[in-house]
Amino acid sequence: MSDEEHHFESKADAGASKTYPQQAGTIRKNGYIVIKGRPCKVVEVSTSKTGKHGHAKCHFVAIDIFNGKKLEDIVPSSHNCDVPHVNRTDYQLIDISEDGFVSLLTENGNTKDDLRLPTDDTLLNQVKGGFEEGKDLVLSVMSAMGEEQICAVKDIGTKT
């Protein structure tokens, strides 16, 4: 028997995959793809013809869905690419804290307090301005690969 102690680090994760495989040739414009480990939205796809040494290649131009950076990748069309599971959820805004975090109301009545205000200036001004005016705001939150970010604001009327 071994006298060694084993310590396992646990991360609160159900083990669900953050991505799924999809053949490169089937990914279209406005779809999603993982390039350099980042979830991206495809803005341009071009496919080269098969050369004398094999595969047709897909050239992807995509924009990172969280930081807006442009990324490119070239993949043989018969190979699999990682595609992120992208979810978009709407939450009602309850409060904005002084340290830049928002308090959101979830569907089941709990609060979600781990999201920062958006870094995009126009979105930031819409959220702060609407909140200061006492409007009821619904924030759309996009999540993929363990990251979340506010991506849109809807005004659903003034609080009574």
UniProtKB/TrEMBL annotation:
Keywords: Hypusine, Initiation factor, Protein biosynthesis. Residues 1-21 are annotated as: Disordered. Residues 1-12 have a biased composition (Basic and acidic residues). GO terms for molecular function: ribosome binding; RNA binding; translation elongation factor activity; translation initiation factor activity. eIF-5A seems to be the only eukaryotic protein to have a hypusine residue which is a post-translational modification of a lysine by the addition of a butylamino group. Coiled coil: none annotated. Belongs to the eIF-5A family. Translation factor that promotes translation elongation and termination, particularly upon ribosome stalling at specific amino acid sequence contexts. Binds between the exit (E) and peptidyl (P) site of the ribosome and promotes rescue of stalled ribosome: specifically required for efficient translation of polyproline-containing peptides as well as other motifs that stall the ribosome. Acts as ribosome quality control (RQC) cofactor by joining the RQC complex to facilitate peptidyl transfer during CAT tailing step. This is Eukaryotic translation initiation factor 5A. It comes from Solanum pinnatisectum.
